[in-house]
Write a structure and sequence with these properties.
Length: 194
Amino acid sequence: MESLFTHLLAETRAVHDATPPLREFADWPEDLVFEQPVPQGIPALPTIEAMAGKGALYAALAAVCPHASWVQTYSEAEVGRHFLDHYGHIELFGPAGIFRTQACRAFIGYWGPGLFYPMHDHEAEEIYLVLTGRCLFEAEGDAPADLGPGGVKFHRSGQSHAMTMGDEGMLALCLWRGAGLADNAKLNAPPASS
Ligand code: ZN
C-alpha cells in the first residue's frame, strides 16, 4: 500500500524537478513521513482513474485513487451539488498530507468540465501547474490567464482568485508555502445585496 503512494510521490517529484517555477517556489521537502490515509472517495473518482493512460503520473494517481483520502473543503450550500460531483483533491504532502511535513504543501486536484470555482483566498502563497485540460485563472490585480498543460499560475498571500475550467476540466498540481499552510481556502463573501 505505502509503495503505491511512494510511487505517486516519486512521479510528482519528477514533475516538480522538471518545472523550474515549481522548483523556485519550494524545495522538495526531505522530511516526509508516510501516514496511512483513511480511504475516502468522491463522485469524480472514475473520471480521474480513467486518466491512467495519459502517462506515468496519471497511472500512479489512478493506482492510489481507491486508497486515498479525497477531500472536498466546500459544502453543497457554498458551491452546489454539481460542483461537489465534479471536484476533489488529495493532499500528497503537508500538515495533513499522505506524507506529513510542515515545510510546504502539495495537492493534486481535479475540477470537471466547465466548472466555475468562485473567488476565494488563503493566507498561504500558492502555485498551480496545469497537468491536463485548460483553465482560465482570474486573480485580483493580474491579467486573466488561460492556461493549458505546463502552464503555471502564482497567487500571492490573500490574493483573491477564481478559476473557470475548459471543456475537459482540469487536473492540477498545486503547492502552498508560508503562513497559513494548514488552513483551507475560503470563498470570498458575495457582494451584499441592497
Ligand atoms: Zn488558491
